[in-house]
Write a structure and sequence with these properties.
About 30% of the residues lie in helices and about 15% in strands. With about 170 residues, the chain is α+β, with helices and mostly antiparallel strands.
Length: about 170
C-alpha cells in the first residue's frame, strides 16, 4: 500500500518481497468453512499455487497475479458483492479480472486460505501523504481501500496489497 501513501492502520514499515518470503506462517486451524468454496475457485487456487511453497510464497504469487493482471473498475461495470458465488463470477475469467478493492481482497483472502495461509481481509482508508496539513487530513470516499493481512510467526499480521493500481482500467 506504500504506493498510495501513508498506511494509517499500521505504522510498521513496508516489507520487501524478499523479507516477506523469509517470514513463516502456521496453517490455520479454522479452515472448515472452506468446504463451501466452489470448485472453480479451488481450481484457480491450485493453478496459481502450482510450484509455490506453502505459506507466504503462495500468497505472494496470488497477490502478484491479481495486481499485475487485474484491472480496477471505477464505474459500474463490475457487479457489487463478495459472496462466494460473486467471487466465483468475479474470477470466472482469470485472464480478465475487473473489479474494485473489496472484491480483490475478498478473493485473495479466500484463495490464500485455500493455500493454507492464515489470512484476513481489511478495509480502511489510505490517504496520500501530501494531503496532510498540520497533522490532519480530509478523508474522501475515494480513499477507501481493501487488502489482506497474513499472520506470520515473526511479525504478527503483515499487510499485503492485492488490488491493481487504480490507473489499470480495462
Amino acid at each position: 500500500l506504500g504506493r498510495h501513501g501513508l498506511r494509517l492502520h499500521d505504522p510498521r514499515p513496508e516489507l520487501t518481497e524478499l523479507e516477506l518470503r523469509r517470514l513463516t506462517t502456521r496453517a490455520d486451524e479454522a479452515d472448515g468453512d472452506l468446504d463451501l468454496v466452489p470448485p472453480r475457485l479451488r481450481d484457480l487456487a491450485g493453478d496459481t499455487f502450482e510450484g509455490e511453497a506453502p505459506g507466504l510464497p503462495r500468497t505472494l504469487a496470488l497477490a502478484s497475479r491479481l495486481v499485475d493482471e487485474g484491472f480496477y473498475d471505477h464505474g459500474d461495470t463490475a457487479r457489487p458483492g463478495h459472496s462466494l458465488a460473486r467471487l466465483e463470477e468475479f474470477l470466472a475469467e482469470p485472464d480478465r479480472v475487473i473489479g474494485f478493492a473489496e472484491q480483490y481482497a475478498a478473493s485473495a483472502g479466500v484463495l490464500s486460505r485455500i493455500g493454507g495461509t492464515p489470512t484476513r481481509v481489511v478495509v480502511g482508508y489510505v490517504l496520500p501523504v501530501a494531503r496532510y496539513r498540520n497533522g490532519a487530513a480530509e478523508v474522501r470516499a475515494d480513499d477507501i481501500e481493501a487488502w489482506i493481512e497474513v499472520k506470520t510467526v515473526e511479525r504478527g499480521w503483515v499487510p499485503i496489497a492485492v488490488t491493481p493500481d487504480r490507473s489499470r482500467e480495462p
